[in-house]
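Handover notes (outgoing to incoming on-call)

Open items:
1. Response regulator transcription factor: sequence verified, structure written out, both below. Nothing else pending on this one.
2. Nothing else urgent.
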Amino acid sequence: MPATIALVDDDRNILTSVSMTLEQEGFQVRTYTDGESALQGLLARPADLAVLDIKMPRMDGMELLQRLRQRSAMPVVFLTSKDEEVDELMGLRLGADDYITKPFSQRLLLERIRALLRRNEASRAEGSGTPAGGIIVRGDLVLDETKHTCVWKGHDIQLTVTEFLLVKALALRPGMVKNRDQLIDAAYGENIYVDDRTIDSHVKRVRKKFRQADDDFAQIETLYGIGYRYKES
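Response regulator transcription factor structure tokens:
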């Protein structure tokens, strides 16, 4: 079955041109011109990945993402304008997996979509270095790659694809420092450029999710100027 991509943007020219490109590449595409209709459509019929503009009528991309994340870990790419740096960071903190700045290359968007879909599929399969059965247990942490689930002290932690891959990369080697480049490779794949602040924003959101379940969570440590490491409890 071809993957289904949801495009949400109030610019009909973007919807038309990007839809044509994606359909030519074999994807199924559903389009929405505002956040409210997109929310209704995606809750009724989930897509494999969504591309969201930030500034839209009726419900902007930020609110749409926030509402979607209450129900779904579907990969999300944000489209932002050059003057929306704050929005980019806020989007990542709300749970976006990636962002692209307008005006954008459709080839770049296609590469990012394919990379996210590959990561989503890989995160559900047994990865190299993962114990048999796709289960990683580190003290109170249990990651199940096959089911794409994360449990901390008996609490389900809802992680996006990017967040899951970051936690996995750190948990596979407790005590070992991972610099930002290594985490970018683990979460986004090689040959994909991502700013360092993107990783920092994802880590902050991961910590927030764990601390909602456990105020004392401190397993992901920051080594300033170096990177991050997982401290096994």
